[in-house]
Design goal:
Elements: H1 2-20, E1 34-39, E2 46-52, E3 64-69, H2 78-81, H3 88-95, E4 99-104, H4 115-131, E5 136-142, H5 144-155, H6 158-161, E6 164-170, H7 176-182, H8 186-196, H9 204-209, E7 224-230, H10 238-248, E8 254-260, H11 269-280
Parallel strand pairs: 3-4, 3-5, 5-6, 6-7, 7-8
Antiparallel strand pairs: 1-2, 2-4
Helix pairs in contact: 3-11
């Protein structure tokens, strides 16, 4: 009975998302995201994401979906609220005016794209593509989200992975065991343990599975990577981004490291603008 109830809830959710493909009217404010509710096909849990349409129509070959991963302790509304000078969503949508913008919640505040979160992101991306068909996907994330964007670039479902053309990872790490050992943040260590079910010594395979530097053979060489690194970061130390950039250079055709003078957190809009310009040039 539980299995049937889960199937019913997922089917109801899918029908509602299908109806949404024609629900976006011309009177909607393009600067205000739509909050979407869905039932996870992974375990029947209810979840949320935010979705914004492109500012302008596009040819099929130019259509893009931007997928954003929030930082630890935040929610899917993060890119619509910060930074104060100009939100991340505004930056992305201004830079890619033909791109729809999807912000995923991926199982709350400390999931680090674990198994359940990964399944939800695949489901959300597929729903967004049903609504706004796109040939290209760009992944963007900050802090935990930067790590998750890197992981998703090779862990995404095959039909999604083949569309991914670029990753903008702000304050991310390519080796989560190294992050656990080198971070000055107890909250980050606790979040990693919560997400993967234990310490690296016990759950090392889970940490490695979500670390891009342990999975370079799974990475698409044609994907462009831009890494944003805060020079005074002691939460996700900047040395981890420098090391990742060097190691990625042997596995992909395009890697760029952009450093900026700041501590850990959401940087000003100009940093994301510079990163996106490097990604799509």
């Amino acid at each position: 009975m539980k299995g049937l109830k889960k199937q019913r809830d997922v089917l109801t959710s899918n029908i509602q998302q299908y109806r949404n493909t024609t629900a976006f009217g011309s009177d909607s404010d393009p600067n205000v995201p739509e909050k979407e509710t869905f039932v996870s096909s992974f375990d029947g849990q209810q979840g949320f994401y935010a979705l914004s349409p492109p500012f302008m129509p596009s040819k099929a070959e130019d259509a893009t979906l931007i997928v954003y991963f929030h930082g630890m302790g935040s929610t899917y509304m993060e890119p619509y609220l910060v930074p104060k000078d100009k939100s991340i969503a505004q930056v992305c949508r201004d830079q890619l005016r033909q791109g729809a913008f999807l912000s995923v919640d991926y199982r709350g505040k400390a999931s680090w794209l674990n198994q359940a979160a990964l399944a939800d992101v695949d489901q959300n991306v597929q729903a967004a593509l049903l609504r706004f068909p796109a040939r290209k996907i760009i992944l963007v994330g900050t802090s935990m989200g930067g790590c998750s964007a890197l992981s998703y670039s090779y862990l995404a479902a095959p039909d999604i992975k083949e569309k991914i053309v670029g990753v903008l990872a702000c304050e991310g790490a390519g080796d989560l065991v190294a992050l656990y050992k080198e971070t000055d943040s107890d909250l980050v260590r606790k979040g990693l343990i919560e997400a993967f079910g234990g310490l690296p010594e016990i759950m090392g395979n889970e940490y490695a599975h979500h670390s891009i530097l342990s999975n370079l053979a799974m990475v698409n060489r044609k994907v462009r990577y831009v890494l944003l690194s805060a020079s005074q970061d002691d939460v996700v130390p900047s040395a981890l981004q420098k090391s990742m950039a060097e190691k990625l250079k042997g596995a992909v055709d395009s890697v760029e490291l952009i450093e900026f003078p700041d501590r850990h957190g959401v940087p000003e809009a100009a940093v994301y603008e510079k990163g996106l310009q490097a990604l799509v040039r």
